[in-house]
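Sequence in, structure out. Go.
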Amino acid sequence: MLTNYINAALRRATYEILNDRTFYGEIPGFRGVYANAASLEECREELREVLEGWMILGLRLGHAMPVLDGITLEVEKEAA
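Output:
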């Protein structure tokens, strides 16, 4: 499920070449998830790493994750 969610998010990524000839990528709807690298492949890999960290932190803090392609991520709370 996590792999499918990450892949769904990365399919939404947008990339551009900046004036300094580096690549910038971001995922719309995922605030703060962006990357900048010398090549497109490096940018994609960095973007994946940033996304994974963003997801882990968000889930630990109890933040709602965007629903992607019908995939919902949430932490189940234990019954008291």
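Check: The longest strand covers residues 14-17. The chain has two helices and three strands.
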